[in-house]
């Protein structure tokens, strides 16, 4: 393609975002055609229905060693009993699934997504890849509609924790055409943003990078008054220590963490303070320009890494029980673009969901010199090393991917994130817990989710191979239990085929809807 044709293609992708996003929202809310995802076969188990998973090796994600030859009895939507096979009474008439040689783990929790696309594709794809809960970091009306349909049994999908619109400074690093956005410039506006989020039914307030100190601390105080958590980016004018003490539930991505481990943080913060945002630009070019300004600061942070300062920071995070969501998968996509490629998993997405990926990625990552590319690879490796250090220091880590950005396929990406966490230094058990028990605790759901224990909700994944021997084995899904519904191997194959068929038949615009995080390597 000639240069002018490439430029025109990129302009069409970026300039058409407003219409694209509106079309995507419409696609998500229109009535769905009848399919194998509906009907009696797709509803939850009846209130008294029971089935048993027998002869399985149970990895309950509590940290206990694997337990062999176990039976898990599910009644309705709850785990009714767990014990040695032969010692658990299986009700007469209950379906029994013999899982000899297979492994049962809790349903996976995805802690950072921006879901967009047809409801015939995205919600079921999460569930069928073992992701039984997701945290939506930029809530839209259709996410609430999906949650209602899933709860009623009309739609197969995960449990949904839904954030507010992004709350950012004025001007934001976003534009409203890529998704819901609240720009605030004063303490009063920040407080109203919190009240609005609560009125609209958000589960938490999503904070962002360009909030002023005045607005951020007013937001934190109002969130406490209103009894609603807040989570997201650590704003540039705010230190991690201040965010921790203000009560921020989770810190997303590795950018603020990386900068805070530098012996030259004051100099870096002066550099951040000097950055301005051009409100006349679209989201993607705002981020491109941001990256060009921030790259030198990040590389400076790598070169001025301070181990003692880092230990103190991580001790503070651990002591206050704050969680970090590293999102290594999006860092990899934007910092090592040579790893981005079309995979077989794309068959589960409509062409309209993927057609813009290469153009946006080129805007964000194209034109790097060899020296710049080498520096960015160094930054990525440093991020991974910091993740390992955090875990060894006792910091709670949650697995999230920033799904919604280019080259990140819903559901499948979480398995890639687990692999990256192990590469960063976590054990397979620790990586598994980052997608099960740790987010359940962080989100106040530990009494119901996150581990395989009697009385908890029945979200389970059956694997053909041992994930503690190799974390990549979480991809070897044999069967599933999604909110008490047993999906056998044959049914899962059939349902995935239905998703693939739906993806081929969907013809309509689907927009970039991430953090704006399809942007630049330092801000996923």
TrEMBL record:
Where is each Amidohydrolase-related domain found?
103-486
Q: What PROSITE patterns does the annotation carry?
A: TAT (PS51318)
Among Gene3D superfamilies, the record links this protein to:
Metal-dependent hydrolases, Urease, subunit C, domain 1
Q: Which InterPro entries match?
A: Amidohydro-rel, Metal-dep_hydrolase_composite, Metal_Hydrolase, Metallo-dep_Hydrolase, TAT_signal
Q: What is this protein called?
A: Amidohydrolase family protein
Supply the source organism for this entry: Actinomadura gamaensis
From the broadest rank down, the organism's phylogenetic lineage runs: Bacteria, Bacillati, Actinomycetota, Actinomycetes, Streptosporangiales
